Amino acid sequence: MGIALKDLTREALEAEVVRLRTVLENAGICAEQQTRRDVHQSVCRSGCQSASEADPLTLQALAAELAASQAALTSSEARQRAVFDSITELAIILTDPAGIITDWNLGAEQVMGWSASEMLGQSSELIFTETDRATGRAKQEMDDVLRHGRVTNERWHLRKGGQQFWASEAMSPLYGPNSSHLGYMKILHDHTSEHMAGRAIEESQQRYRLAAKATNDAVWDWDLNTNHVLWNDALEQAYGYPLADVDSSGDWWIERIHAEDRARIHSSIRAVIDGSGTTWTGEYRFRRHDGTYAEVIDRGQVIRNAEGEAVRMIGAMLDLTRMRAVEIALRQSEERFKTILESIEAAFAIVQVKFDADDQPVDYLFLEANPAFERQAGVDLRGKWVTEFAPDLEQFWFETYGHVAKTGEPASFENYAEAFERWFDVRAVRVGDPAERQIAILFSDVTQRRRAEERLRVSESLARENVQRVQLALAAGAIIGTWNWHLPTDRFTVDEGFALAFGLDPALGREGLSLEQIIATVHTEDREGLKAAIAEVIARGGAYAHQYRVRRGDGRYYWIEANGRVDLAEDGTPQKFPGVLIDVEHRRSIEAERDRATAALRALNETLEQRVAERTAALIQTEDKLRQSQKMEAVGQLTGGLAHDFNNLLAGISGALELMSLRLSQGRFDDIDRYMASAQGAAKRAAAVTHRLLAFSRRQTLDPRPIDVNVLMEGMTELIQRTVGPGIRVETVSGMHLWSASVDASQLENAILNLCINSRDAMPDGGRITIETSNRWLAGDIARAYDLPEGQYLSLSVADTGTGMTPAVIAKAFDPFFTTKPIGQGTGLGLSMIYGFAKQSGGQVRIDSEKGHGTQVSIFLPRYIGEATEAAAVATMTNTVPGEARGTILIVDDEPTVRLLLMDVLGDLGYTLIEAADSVSGLKVLQSEVNIDLLITDVGLPGGMNGRQMADAGREIRTGLKTLFITGYAESAAIGNNSLGPGMQVLTKPFAIDTLASRVQQMLAL
After folding, report:
1. Closest listed residue to residue 384, CA positions, set 361, 362, 365
2. Rounded to the nearest 5°, which phi and psi values hold at 83?
3. Where is the Histidine kinase domain (predicted)?
4. Do 488 and 566 form a contact (C-beta atoms < 8 A)?
5. How would you label 473-492 residue by residue, b for 16+ Cβ within 10 Å and e otherwise?
6. Half-sphere exposure (Cβ direction) of 218: Cα atoms closer than 13 Å
7. Does the domain spanning 215-325 belong to CATH 3.30.450.20?
């Protein structure tokens, strides 16, 4: 026809193929395309003209031309594919419009690690980081490409295994004939090495700039070729030279070295520069801007070129004057602290608390103590345990000091020690490594003060206000002023000492002041805290104490402590607020010195950290070995139980089948039914074991629906009573206004029945079973103890008056095949099935039992917000006599034997049947015009979609399509985490023939 196929583009070739097919179809010949490389011609089954009606020569020419076009298209595709796979340094990814990967070149395999077979059909979101997936980055890129065409950027992506890499990417849309959107092409280039190297350089440069700016050293950079020196800001900060006025030559620097040091320093620097050395250090005196000299230590590093010639020198000059002054000050501080500690009247000690095996404090050892300790306590306990001196010491001291040592929470209190016959005012704080359980104690003997307070309380000769002031004075120490605030009139009167302490005119204090006048001289940093403390004590009443700084008449700020009490009327209205001021300036200084001493003691304990770390590592290794041992023990128990039960069941099935074969060969048919019943019974028991194992592992097929558990429980009462026998009384307690739960009703019935049977077996001489429901709100520690998220739960418990369980039995009660019953009387799968069912339903199960006092097993299920749609489990389908079966059923299963079974059973019932072996074939049937009344599909299917996905896709076309899922193992991702939609049901493999027939008949009748 005059067309040079080899010269056509791919789009032109595809258009030519379409044109030729149209010609053939108009001539009555259909070309059914199986793949792009194979073309078969056949006469249409319906709706086509006979091929004999067309001109044979014309048809042959058209067919030849079509074949040539197809071959050219195939060749073009092969060339493009070769180019696509030959680019190995770039990852090229093709997706459809929804972002599903349709092609994956060799470069993508090398860059990201996934093979094409692993990635085809996957979402392109798989290569994005978790952060990008959370923000919908993949969808955003596709939208940007459609709006703007080709889009480029750089970002982090993921390799197989979760490793991240930095890539530059370009993404473009793909369009077909008639501008139809075919998908996207994404090209990635791994630039991780370059990116990390660039970042390292930037970070290094930034660190250098920050270090030069932040250091107190005068950093210099000396260009030896130009004799040009650059200084950092520290030159001005440390030595007073403004950088703008500094001569940048090296001579300027040398000239400011002390004359006695200059020649030595100049010679030592030149020796390094002119020689082969790289480092230089020297100490000398450097003249400051004000003419004084600083003692400095200077360090420099020589940088040489390829010929070894020194071209640059970088160094830093540290002012030793300040360092030496600090050292002197530190020594003086330590000596002062030691003097204070030795001379103060307050007793100071460091003790180590001893704990027993239950982590309860039982003793404490005095590690350090000052002389005042012996005076205050009346005994020298340094290096001794307190119980050596006071074996009957009150438990209060152990509990208080133990709490401080364990939690790190400071404690301040006054308490009487019977063993010492004294009252002590104590402040305790934890020091050192928390693992050492050491605390520092600062206390004073306040026995005399306490006795004076007691005498004061019994004295009735003083006015109440004066009694309060004297008590506060005795409690606090050095009083410098008093106040009385009449709150209803807001009249604030103070004495002369108070007025002087606040820098006020004493005359104003006698007349009455406002709170704003009082706090005007309070330090601005302490003012808001003071206001908040006053407001808080006025609101609650009672004692008040607060420390803050006040500016006195000399303009300086001093630390004071205000102690007072707010008296409330009977109706809670605040009335009076009297109090005193205490000078705590000296005490604050002592506390600061004490804190420095504590820091020094903490430094002494730092060498202990390594030993603690080594011991911790050894303990972790031991725990890992123990967990591994326990894991292997559990695996052994599971595999042993599986082998035992399944060997027994397989023996029954195999033996029955062999006997059936033998009897059939002998012509004896009398026992065939008995052997067949035996094999079927063993198969059903094997299925039950499988279902219970799947329940324990939380992989069973569930059909959760909102139910009223009270109705379900009451409906089972008669069945449970018959099952446990007349010797056991069954009681039910229904919770009022019980919440609904979304749960598989039949599995919940099984769980209740299993628990009741266990209770029956635990009461051989009779007893009582109580089944109770209630609403529970679990929060905080209770939720964590039950291993459940905080929230609302429905609780269903089964309690008995039986023999109970030991803690060891409770610990293994949920393990599969664990049982305390004699051999042959229990499989050990009941509780494990209940545990798995509860966990898979989003809840939990817990056992509360004591040997000889019965057992209570509680199942917790999440509350369902809404009304219950079912009151009980779905009733078991009754056998239905096959009648006139009508309807078309599509059967999709990749197992030929299962398809054969379904086709034979349903075919005998008279249904019209269509079968498919994978999800793609099944979906094609659903997308066709064929009438489908019911879809029966396996959940796990080949072809890129599972059964649920195929059914959902079919429902997009056939609204309300009835679907029966058949499965023996259902992952949540396959069936879905939510309840099945209307018109959807699940049938678990293996199933009985009559159950299948009844279920199909019921669904078609709906």
Report:
1. 365
2. -65, -40
3. 641-865
4. no
5. ebbbeebbbbbbbebeeeeb
6. 24
7. yes
Q: Are 147 and 141 in contact (CB under 8 A)?
A: no
| Whether the predicted pLDDT of 336 surpasses 60 | yes
* Residue in the block written with tokens 């103070």: 494
> Helix-strand-coil percent breakdown of the chain, rounded to 5?
45, 25, 30
| CATH 3.40.50.2300 boundaries in the chain | 888-1005
Integer Cα distance of 671 and 660 in angstroms: 8
- Looking at domain 343-447, what is its CATH homologous superfamily? PAS domain (3.30.450.20)
Select 888-1005's CATH number: 3.30.70.1130, 3.20.20.140, 3.40.50.2300, 3.40.50.150.
3.40.50.2300
Percentage of residues in the chain having pLDDT higher than 70:
73
Residue 407: which of 351, 359, 364, 357 has the closest Cα?
359
Are 279 and 272 within 8 A, CB to CB?
A: yes
Instruction: Tell me the C-alpha distance between 834 and 826, whole Å.
Output: 15
DSSP 50: -
3-state secondary structure at position 265: helix
CA distance between the termini of the chain: 61
Q: Average pLDDT, stretch 519-534?
A: 90
**Which residues lie closer than 8 Å to 749 by C-beta, 6 or more apart?**
712, 716, 872, 873
Residues 6+ apart with CB under 8 A from 60: none
**pLDDT tens readout for residues 552-610:** 878 888 888 888 889 888 888 898 888 888 888 777 777 777 777 777 666 666 666 66
Q: Are the CB atoms for 527 and 519 separated by under 8 Å?
A: yes
> Phi/psi at 359 (nearest 5 deg)?
60, 35
CA separation for the pair 622, 678 (Å, rounded): 51
Q: What is the CA radius of gyration of the chain?
A: 45
Q: Structure pTM?
A: 0.30
Alpha carbon distance 919, 950 (integer Å): 6
- Could you give the 3-state DSSP secondary structure of residue 485? strand
Write the DSSP symbol of residue 123: B
Q: Where are the alpha helices (DSSP H) in 725-768?
A: 745-761
Alpha-carbon distances, residue 628 vs 84, 618, 637, 640, 817 (angstroms):
49, 16, 14, 18, 20
Whether a cis peptide bond, with omega within 30° of 0, leads into 990 is yes
Residue the block writes with tokens 């299962």: 898
Distance between CA atoms of 754 and 843, rounded to whole angstroms?
18
702-862 has which CATH code?
3.30.565.10
Query: SS3 for 606?
Result: coil
- Contact, 93 vs 155, CB < 8 A? no
What single-letter DSSP state applies at residue 887?
-
pLDDT of residue 156: 92
Domain(s) labelled CATH 3.30.450.20 in the chain stretch across 81-197, 215-325, 343-447
Domain made up of 81-197: CATH architecture: 2-Layer Sandwich (3.30)
Alpha-carbon distance of 277 to 428, in angstroms, equals 57
How far apart, in whole angstroms, are the C-alpha atoms of residue 693 and residue 648? 17
